[in-house]
């Protein structure tokens, strides 16, 4: 299995985004080697984006509460990290 992973990583590293089949090649390579560095980076980026979005939503809820916005106080208190 180690030899296959080396070849898969080599193919994945050589693939070019300008290639019309880039997405197919990438998906096939990831299915062989899910621990590829590119997939770890993509997962880390997605997690960072999720956290940022959650923080922005929490801040928006707090701002609405402070301004007496449309959300009811009892409902939004459970969502506000303030």
Individual helix count = 4
User: How confident is the prediction overall: mean pLDDT?
Assistant: 76
How big a fraction of the residues is strand?
under 5%
Structural domain tally = 1
H/E series, N to C? HHHH
How many beta-strand elements? 0
Residue stretches low in confidence (pLDDT < 50, at least 5 long) are none
Task: Report the principal-axis shape.
Answer: elongated
Task: Report the major sheet.
Answer: none
Explain what the structure shows.
- This protein is an all-alpha fold and 82 residues long.
- It has one domain (2-77).
- 72% of the residues lie in helices and 0% in strands.
- It contains four helices and no strands.
- It has helices at 2-14, 22-32, 37-66, 73-77.
- The protein is elongated, with a radius of gyration of 21 Å.
- The model has no long low-confidence stretch (mean pLDDT 76).
């Amino acid at each position: 299995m180690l030899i296959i992973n080396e070849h898969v990583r080599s193919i994945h590293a050589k693939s070019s985004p300008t290639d019309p089949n880039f997405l197919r090649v990438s998906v096939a390579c990831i299915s062989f080697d899910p621990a590829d560095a590119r997939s770890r980076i993509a997962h880390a980026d997605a997690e960072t984006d999720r956290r940022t979005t959650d923080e922005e939503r929490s801040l928006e809820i707090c701002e609405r509460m402070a301004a007496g916005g449309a959300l009811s106080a009892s409902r939004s208190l459970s969502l506000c990290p303030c």
